[in-house]
Amino acid sequence: MNFTEASLFWGFLLVYGVVMYVLSPKSKNANSFYKGADDQGNPVGQWSLTASIFISWIFAKSVTNAANLGAAYGVTGGLAYASYWLSIPVAGYIIYLIRTQTGARSLQDFLTSRFGRFAALAFAAAILIRLYNEVWSNTAVVGGYFGLPGQWQYYTAAMVFTVFTLAYSLKGGLRSSIFTDVIQAFVFVFFVGAVLFLIIPANDSSALLSNGEFRLDAGFDLLLVALLQMFSYPFHDPVLTDRGFVNKEKTMLKSFVVAGLLGFVAVFIFSLVGVHARLNGIDAMGNAPAAVGQSLGLAALFFMSVVMMTSAGSTLDSTFTSLAKSLAVDLPRLARRASDKLPSMRVGAVVMVIFAFAGNLPMFAGTDILKATTISGTMVMGLAPVFLFYGFTKWSPWSFHLSFWTGLGLGVLLAVGLIPASWAIGDGKYAMLLGVNAYGFLVCTAGFFVPLVLRRLKRRSLAAGEA
Question: Which site among 48, 124, 216, 338 is 20 to 30 Å from 185 CA-CA?
Answer without folding.
Answer: 124
